[in-house]
Amino acid sequence: MLVVLVTGGLGHALANRARGPEVEAVQARRGELVQKVVVAGRVTPPSQVRVASQVAGTVQAGRELLVLARTGATRLPVEPDEKNLAFIRPGQRALASADAFPQERFGAAVESVAPGVNPERGTAEVKLSVPTPPPYLRPDMAVSLEIEVARKDGAVLVPAEAVRDVATAATWAWGVREGRAQRVEVKAGLSGEGKLELLSGPPEGDWLLTGKAPVTEGGRVRVKARAAGGKP
Question: Is 181 helix (H, G, I), strand (E, B) or coil?
Answer without folding.
Answer: strand
